[in-house]
């Protein structure tokens, strides 16, 4: 049985993730998480973010195969700007969105724009699964392992998002009063994890 807290990718798997992230970066949007009020990301930042996400997807696929005997095909296709894969995984009709963050990160990021187009297309994920990816921050590269951190169902996500929206409104109100500055609306949804 695979230790889900320490999933190792083979050198071939890691090389495939690196190649995918480098080739797909040129087709990605430069604005962070679809939020036009932020500074544009460099190609190297986009490549890094894609790499973290793809390593998480490979770790998920390995976990499902080795621990549960379920094959989860991986999508290494390159899509033109404005097009995406339909889901990271589908198991028994459940649509699954695999999310990744560098080791030490505590945020599960689900972009509002992604939720909007998935909802518009009646294609919301049923489950969000999070992995932290081990990263050598000195060399700015992955070490080749990932850790399963947990999962959040769409039902629980909807409940958490209602609370968070209220919380964001309160914070924005307080910042306007305390610092007399306008805050742009948030386009990304963040959930703090206990890791």
Concise synopsis of the structure shown:
The protein is α+β, with helices and mostly antiparallel strands and 195 residues long. It is 39% helix and 24% strand. The chain is built from four helices and seven strands; from the N terminus they run βααβββαββαβ.
Distance between the termini: 23 Å
Strand order of the largest sheet: 1-6-5-3-2
Shape type: globular
Q: In which range does the helix fraction lie?
A: 25-40%
Low-confidence stretches: 180-195
Radius of gyration: 17 Å
What kind of sheet is the major sheet?
Answer: 5 strands, mixed
Please state roughly what percent of the residues sit in beta strands, choosing from under 5%, 5-15%, 15-25%, 25-35%, 35-45% or over 45%: 15-25%
Q: Give the overall pLDDT as a whole number.
A: 78
What's the total count of β strands? 7
The class by helix and strand makeup works out as alpha+beta
Q: Give the SSE string.
A: EHHEEEHEEHE
């Amino acid at each position: 049985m695979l230790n889900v807290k320490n999933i190792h990718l083979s050198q071939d798997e890691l090389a495939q993730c690196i190649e995918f992230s480098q080739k797909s970066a040129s087709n990605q949007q430069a604005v962070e998480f679809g939020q036009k009020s932020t500074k544009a990301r460099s190609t190297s930042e986009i490549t890094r973010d894609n790499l973290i996400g793809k390593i998480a997807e490979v770790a998920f696929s390995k976990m499902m195969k080795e621990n549960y005997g379920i094959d989860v095909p991986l999508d290494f296709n390159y899509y033109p700007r404005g097009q995406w894969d339909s889901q990271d995984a589908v198991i028994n009709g459940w649509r699954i969105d695999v999310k990744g963050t560098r080791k030490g990160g505590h945020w599960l990021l689900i972009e509002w724009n992604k939720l909007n187009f998935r909802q518009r297309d009646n294609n919301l994920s049923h489950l969000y699964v999070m992995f932290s990816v081990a990263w050598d921050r000195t060399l700015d590269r992955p070490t080749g392992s990932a850790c399963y951190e947990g999962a959040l169902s769409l039902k629980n996500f909807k409940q958490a998002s209602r609370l968070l929206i209220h919380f964001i409104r309160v914070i924005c109100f307080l910042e306007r009063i305390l610092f007399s500055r306008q805050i742009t609306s948030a386009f990304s949804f963040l959930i703090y994890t206990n890791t």
